[in-house]
Amino acid sequence: MSLWGTVSEWLVAIGTLVLAAVAVFQETIRGWFYHPDFHVSIKTEPPDCVAVPLTKSDGTFVADSIYLRLWVENVGNATAKNVEVYANGLQRQRADGTWERVVAFPPMNLKWANLGTIYFPSIAPEMGKHCDVGRIVDPSRRHLLHEDAPRFELTNEQTSLAFVLISPPNHKGHIIGPGEYQLEIFVAAENARPVTRTIEISLRGTWDADETRMLRDGVGVSIGAV
Question: What are 188-218's pLDDT values in tens digits?
């Protein structure tokens, strides 16, 4: 057998092995080049933060509220599947400027806006969806929604904020009073690595039924520096 014949046989064998490897690991290889990626943002203005009148199932008015919503955008080149947002922990700023963990806050998934589920089935590239972070209810009517938290000793004019967790705890650890907070979140998908971000929240404690004034003077939200 000639040398060239041996070389060609080796080339054929190597080519066959490469093709077999590609066939077996094609999804993994494709994932190296095509995958979702997330950009997370929030502004204290519509459409992220909006006034929402809360009603019963029969349409009866219950209370005015302000919803704070996170915008999750897929900036990758593949559709994100089963996307979730997980609230990992909450910190509150002390009077001396340091931060301490809010022990009562239960780490848990947030709900997708207008869907109310843990997972959003799919987000295509260059598309985004809103995820509810929390809501502020007219303090004079929040007891109608069982969002009063006696431990804060708030008046009917002082606001509180209830995080929109997938399963609010009975001890009401998802409710906070006026102050400066940092909420750590993870945004992940079935086919994407988690992205960690911090939502900075400033709750002033004052209520205004006017959406513009409330989002200007009563509450502020932003994404902390990465």
Answer: 999 999 999 999 999 999 999 999 999 999 9
Closest CA to 132 of 150, 146, 120: 120
Q: In which residue are the tokens 């431990």 written?
A: 151
> How many residues are given for the chain?
226
Two structure tokens written together for 146: 């069982």
Cβ atoms 88, 106 nearer than 8 A: no
Cβ-proximal residues to 54 (8 Å cutoff; 6+ apart), any chain: 61, 62, 63, 64, 65, 137, 145
Kindly report, residue by residue over 97-114, the tens digit of the pLDDT: 999 999 999 999 999 999
Cis peptide before 47 (omega within 30 of 0): yes
Strands (E), the chain: 38-41, 49-55, 61-74, 80-93, 99-101, 108-109, 120-123, 128-137, 161-163, 175-176, 179-189, 192-203, 219-223
- Classify domain 36-223 by CATH architecture: Sandwich (2.60)
Q: Which of 159, 104, 111 is nearest to 133 (CA)?
A: 111
